[in-house]
Amino acid sequence: MTWKIQAITGELTGQEISIDRDMLVGRHQAADIVLQLAEISRKHAAFLLVDQALWVQDLQSSNGTFVNDVQVADQVLLKEGDIVQFASLRFSVLAPAQAVEPAAEAEQAESAMALEQPSEAVAVSETAQQPEDAPKTAAQQMNDQGMPAMSERDANVKLSRDGMPQGISVPKPAPIPEGVDVSAVKPEPAPVPVEQPLTRVEEEKQAQKNASLGLMSLIVLIILAIAAWLFFK
């Protein structure tokens, strides 16, 4: 068990000091709790641990040791919340936390487990206690009418080595009604080819081809005209 004191005045305000053994308080560097003030004696006081209880003892200091504003003549037993004062420096006493007994821990664990039980368990217990005159579900009605359960239907189906079901008949196609002539059904019309428009490059090539043909025709006509003129001259 470790007691603590917390400074509530001076430069150490808010600082906690653990006391787990007999400790000397004073201005001397050899003290366990060093308080660097001129009003603190070199060996001012001592904290004593006796059977896990904390005592404070004044060591005939110059400015005295106080507990709850009462000067300590020899030594005083301390408890939670007491104010210990060395000259003008004041400290609050913090008692160690009490250990939880094993029985109390077991009770806390059982209560925590009871709170963490899933809601499904409650639902199952409630459904198991349904009265006989309660309305039946759709699954119960199917069982009453002779519909086998899913587990029974699975057991009746045999599987091959590849995992495919065996012994299951393939349903036949629906018969053709009387008076319906299957041959009279018109076939779907053949698709009409759609001419793709010429691209710009193809148009240019076609124009050049037409110009070349026209030029060749003109040259041929000129040659024929010259030949005819020379022939009839």
Automatic annotation (TrEMBL):
PROSITE patterns, A to Z: FHA_DOMAIN
Transmembrane segments: 213-232
SUPFAM superfamilies linked to this entry: SMAD/FHA domain
Top-level taxon of origin: Bacteria
Keyword Phosphoprotein: no
CDD domains named in the record: FHA
InterPro entries: Cell_Proc_Reg/RNA_Proc (IPR050923), FHA_dom (IPR000253), SMAD_FHA_dom_sf (IPR008984)
Name under which the protein is recorded: FHA domain-containing protein
